[in-house]
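Narrative of accomplishments. A recurring question from our advisory board has been how the design workflow behaves on a single, concrete structure rather than in aggregate. To address it, we present the structure tokens for one chain from the evaluation set, followed by the sequence designed for it. No filtering or post-editing was applied between the two.
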């Protein structure tokens, strides 16, 4: 897509704004062989941050390859194991003969095989000839260390959509085995975990405390509105368009400096405005963006019970003491015991998250804006 502002894919280079300290931190961790998880609210730029950090490592001369493992479509233990093995082996080999050799040597004694017919049909380098067992799981998660030991370069294991491990029938076993592998701290193959569901990742790393002492937890820092304003202003100026920096700053603050939404907004502004960009151009673009997401937002609220919707209204109104008698009465939340169930439901639906002080945060800034502007507008 030809646009001045990228919002539909991870960004690097001149499109990447700020977060230099975040990049330095991630590079230092990976250089030291430490594993980490990068997680945050949707659209904050976790994938962009990881990609830019890996780019900097390359520029610094660090010799490494990335085993890119995407668990997006994972729904079972078998799925997890096959995706993991496939990603690691493909990072370390490039031909069917090499794939077969690795499977036969490193996965000997397991139910994993290299099936030439399956490879020809789907590109899968690993198949199962029986249901996986505990030995299969142990051997698969030991693959990175086994393969990196004989390689001159490091092997960085990037696991995307990691929260989907929880769909597996053996989720606790998988997480426990991975934890043991990472606790050995093989500096030649650090892990990077990330995903799109913030609360489910927090359930793994913060609530259930898997990898508690072995994986560094990092949430991308907030990009300053002034940096966003300067970036947008400079891009428009280069293409002969003029706007006020404070117009960008105000829009960025409204969207909680979420880079995906800010880029999307000013991509729309670019498409409808010529020459001088007025406040009306930004307002019209915001309304277009709302119209794009309105059906999604309606599905969100229509999926809620009356009680859940009332709690969401209380959050939008700025309430934090939900079990207080006056809040329970005002929003008709039934009881303080019911409040706990309602909070858990909103967290499970990935609409809200609660910080260490139990303060609620609506994950999606555009959804929050829509709730205030349209749905709960008096």
């Amino acid at each position: 897509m030809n646009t001045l502002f990228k919002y539909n894919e991870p960004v690097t280079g001149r499109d990447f704004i700020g977060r230099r300290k975040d990049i330095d931190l991630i590079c230092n961790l990976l250089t030291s062989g430490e594993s980490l998880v990068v997680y945050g609210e949707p659209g904050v730029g976790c994938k962009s941050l990881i990609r830019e950090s890996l780019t900097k490592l390359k520029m610094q001369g660090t010799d490494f390859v990335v085993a890119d493992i995407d668990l997006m479509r994972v729904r079972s233990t078998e799925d997890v194991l096959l995706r993991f093995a496939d990603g690691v082996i493909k990072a370390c080999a490039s031909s069917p003969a090499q794939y077969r050799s690795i499977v036969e040597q490193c996965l000997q004694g397991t139910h994993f095989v290299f099936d030439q017919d399956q490879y020809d049909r789907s590109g899968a380098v690993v198949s199962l000839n029986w249901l996986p067992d505990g030995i299969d799981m142990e051997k698969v998660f030991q693959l990175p260390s086994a393969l990196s030991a004989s390689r001159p370069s490091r092997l960085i294991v990037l696991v995307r959509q990691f929260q989907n491990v929880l769909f597996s029938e053996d989720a606790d076993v998988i997480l426990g085995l991975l934890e043991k592998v990472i606790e050995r701290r093989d500096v030649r193959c650090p892990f990077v975990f990330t995903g799109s569901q913030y609360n489910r990742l927090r359930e793994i790393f913060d609530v259930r405390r898997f990898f508690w002492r072995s994986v560094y937890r990092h949430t991308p820092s907030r990009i300053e509105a002034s940096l966003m304003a300067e970036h947008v202003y400079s891009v428009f100026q280069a293409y002969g368009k003029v706007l006020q920096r404070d117009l960008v700053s105000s829009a960025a603050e409204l969207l909680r400096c979420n880079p995906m939404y800010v880029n999307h907004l000013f991509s729309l502004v670019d498409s409808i405005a010529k020459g001088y960009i007025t406040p009306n151009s930004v307002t019209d673009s915001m309304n277009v963006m709302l119209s794009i997401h309105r059906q999604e937002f309606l599905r969100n609220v229509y999926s809620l019970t009356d009680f859940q919707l009332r709690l969401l209204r209380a959050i939008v109104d700025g309430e934090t003491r939900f079990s207080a008698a006056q809040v329970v009465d005002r929003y008709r939340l039934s009881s303080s015991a019911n409040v706990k169930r309602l909070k858990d439901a909103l967290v499970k639906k990935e609409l809200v998250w609660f910080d260490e002080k139990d303060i609620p945060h609506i994950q999606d800034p555009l959804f929050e804006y829509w709730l205030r502007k349209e749905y709960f507008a008096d």
